[in-house]
Fold this sequence. Notes:
The structure holds three protein chains of three kinds. By secondary structure, chain A is α/β, with parallel strands linked by helices. Chain A contains nine helices and ten strands. In chain A, strand 9 and strand 10 form a beta hairpin. In chain A, helix 4 crosses helix 6. The longest helix of chain A has 16 residues. Chain B is about 55% helix and about 10% strand. Chain C is mainly alpha-helical. Chain C starts with a helix and ends in a 14-residue tail after the last helix. In chain C, helix 2 crosses helix 10 and helix 5 packs antiparallel against helix 8. Chains B and C meet through helix 5, helix 6, helix 12 and helix 14 of B and helix 3, helix 4, helix 10 and helix 12 of C.
Amino acid sequence: MPISVRDPLLEVSGLSAGYGKIGVLHGIELTVGAGEAVALLGPNGAGKTTLLRAISGLLPRSGRIRFAGKDMSATGPRDAVSAGLVHVVEGHRVFTQLSVFDNLLLAGYGLPRSARVHQVEEALAFFPEIAEKRRDLAATLSGGQQQMLAVAQGLVQRPRLLMLDEPSAGLSPVLVDRVLAAAAQLRRTGTAILLVEQLIEKALATVDRVYALARGTIVLEAHAGEADLPNRLEQAYFGQDAQAPLQT
Amino acid sequence: MTDLTQAAMLATMPRSSWRARLGKLAPFLALGLAGLAFPLLGDSYWGVIVTRACVYWVLVAGLNMVVGFAGQIAIGWVGLLTLGAYTTSAMTAGTAMPAVSPYLALVASAAIGGVFGLIVGMPALRLRTFYFAMATLGFSTIVTQVALAWKSVTGGGIGVPGPVFGWPFVGDWGFYYFCLLLAGLCTWMTANLAASRFGRALVAIRDTEVAAESSGIAKPRLLMIVFLFSGALAGVAGGLFSSLQSYITPDAFTFDLSVLFFIAILIGGRGSVLGPLLGTLLLTALPEIAAPLVAWSTFLYAALLLAIVLLVPGGIADLLDFKNRRPLEQHREIVPRPELLMQLLHGKRGETLSLSGVSLRFGGVQAISNLDLDVRREEVHGLIGPNGSGKTTTLNVISGYYAPQAGEVRLGKVILPPQAPQLRASERIARTFQTPRLIGSASVVENVMIGGTIDGRGSFIESLLTLPRHRRDEAVLRERAMLALLTVGLDQLAEVRADRLQHSELRFMEIARALMLQPACLLLDEPAAGLSAEEIRRLGVLIKAISRTGTSVLLVEHHADLIFDICDRVTVLNLGRVLAAGTPDEIRSHREVVSAYLGA
Amino acid sequence: MLESIVSYGLAIGAVYALIGITYNVMFSASRVFSFTAGMLGMLGGVLGALFIGKLGLPAIVGFVLVLACGAVIGVVTEIVAVRPVLKSIEQHLYVLSTLAFALLVQQLTAIEWGTEAQPFPRLIPIGSGWLDQQFWLPLLACAATIVGLEFLYRRTLVGRAFLAIAEDSYAARALGLPEQRLRLASFALAGVIGALAGFTGGEMLLAFFGNQSILSFYGFVPVALGGMGSNRGAVIGGLALGLFQQAANFLVGGIFAAVAVFVVFIAVLLLRPEGLAGATLSRRV
């Protein structure tokens, strides 16, 4: 039941990846259209973070990845970023020893000097809360502000597809809404989003389409508005309880 | 069942058969005979070189335990050689106190070498690699500086005459036999050690310190003994060296020598005795065979070191390991035999593991707060929850890696000491790890034997001299390990190098290692990750059967189906707190759990 | 006597501090403790004596050449001894590979340059006593290095990228920073600093292949005391070590000085493995 995507920006097929001998992902098929927002759901341990790492090239992988018409199956994160495929990693990992502004300048490392400052200001415009603190060390920001900074870092390169890994983790509900609202706002400007999120309801309110990942494979693909989605997700996660009772 | 027991016995047989043992001994016997017959050639020039090789080997044999087995990068061991040489020379020459017999001085050198080996080794008890390497390098630098400065005893730059050993080892050939005897003794002792639980424990410390700790191996104590032993041998080698040189100055102890010792071990291969022995012979003889290269010898050693590190990390020993190049069967199946569990775990008692009021905070993050948890005997208890809910942290508190800020962990009536992972094994708490922890270069059965280390009764000395208690330990451990491998279904792979196994096989190997402890309580950290559906089903049967022998089992797992299939009770964590606890059916229908777990 | 303790102690201390900084610069970008720091110091002296003393090049040309050689050797170190082992699971292989590389260079020096210590030319023939070049040159070099590094880290984007990689190389990679090129650059920079240490300390230490192990160890002591990665710790520790050594040499003799340094080193490693000012160890499981 794959849903056809009109104008595919990211196409992943037959993607497998893992850590050393441990295979985590097995033959992933996934598509994100231009300007589309897609959520990647699944219980923990399913391989969501691994999938984002494999797509952005932070992790060695096998399979095919096409982005904006170019083959990106063997490229590293640096090429992905310059092609407009930006990955905001989990756990708001900003550089605490640098100022907010310097953090953003680094995100524009490959840009020409003149464009760099301009695009940093553009990214800051999304988050007035941290724009005020541009001279402060990132270490002095709260967890929510650090997450905003991490997202802002992702924006500096004017991505065509922004991959956000659990931007809500560890944030209070108000801040979660704030961060997801920024994602929605970004979407309206035409940036595609691939969102890994634990909070299903909030994720569904933000995106057009969802994939569910369990045990390293895509187990469900649906439109965000489909009825009965939570129940179908539950079944997809827990698997059919078809096994015979165990005896000892 | 008796058939299978016999099978377990039979599986241990081929190794102890005479033919196999002879095969292992043959190279040593050949070298020993060649050494004994060597003086018949009457070539005194080569006599000196072979004597030197023997002296070097006395040091390298001990150093091999530190570098090759324990994996500690001791690059400045020449400092201990210097110390031994000056101790023996000064005592025999009487520059510091009345002169004594060279044999007595040699014993004193061993003692002093041992003490300083211990002192230099101390940083390795807390720190790995570079700091320790630097400490040994600094030691060798400083010993040379002191030798230069302490003129009244060492003669400063002018030097001091080396000792001449008297009866019964008279003359050059007498001295040669003396060195050969000591070299043979060192070979025998270190080979014994290598094949003992101490040797395996050292390698475990090298390759997987965490698993070593959880098996009850006390790293500081074991390393201290090894540094003492290795230092003593270096002291003896120093005494012999000074006699061989007949006159010693600080110039004789260049860093090049240290490099030679070190590289002999790496060329030979880590974790082998024969390899480094051949390496020592090779490196000692090399400059003599290729005379024009003498000036370049250290340069070549360094090039060799770089090449080995980058190209053949296994050394000679790996190149000679033909057995492990035979291809393994491609489609292997793991078929556990839970019915053997009663036999494997007989005589042990399960205990209830209970956490009460446990809280732990890292900086600003409350990882777990006021956690109560009871894992009863004969029960599989599942622990689930979203990422960051505190599952692994809980496991690490139980196994003693973290000290909770409040609350306590008990097994039965015993309160478990916080932050003492190496003391869990003696309470019969065993665990497995999220990523399998293994000694890649050791065989599967040896990996499993690590789990039973604390049940050995013999001492270090008994193993060194292969006394009866040591032999009994080895037989017991090996038999139990084979039974454990039969139980988890890996008996066919017992003699295979562990790093050749598939991921799923390593998971079962870890369980076998944990079972070696005959655990009262078993902690499993995501044992099903990376397994196929059928393997997960078999794993489930095995885990459940383990619990039914009385063991309390705590299972941290993401595979919800496995949890709901085999657990007697399930606890759900969220943000470090218990969200719900109950039977699998209760949990499945618990609305809050479903929403927390699914994130709705 | 006090004058010579202070002037000589500070000068040798500045050399130790620079070697310590060399360790730090390499460590920050790669998490690798490289044995090549002492080697770079040794080469700074030998190459300086070669270019200026033997070949008779003008001092300034020789100086620039020495630093350039340092940079090249830094780059070669990264390519030959660091990059191949960073991928390996065995984390300590770099100790062996960098040691082997350092030994290779040292032995080559011993063969081509000779094993005797040779004089280093006097570059600036003004000043005597404690105003002699051999005393203030290392201090000047140390101060200039600190100022230069501070400028690099605080004022330039490349410098901030170094800091970013040092703090979290995974996040830096995800942002698209050219981690490999930055690591290469930091090894080149370390090469320059190490060669500078040896060059400015050349008149004092002479051009001698054996300086390598001495500088390796005494340059590492301030780093161990001050905490890995802390340049401030390296400078304070280096100067203190130099002063202490000279004072002990003059007052109680060389045996005591050597033994005392070693005892302090071991004691700090055992009691405060993270250094006197460093952070604690991270989790292992």
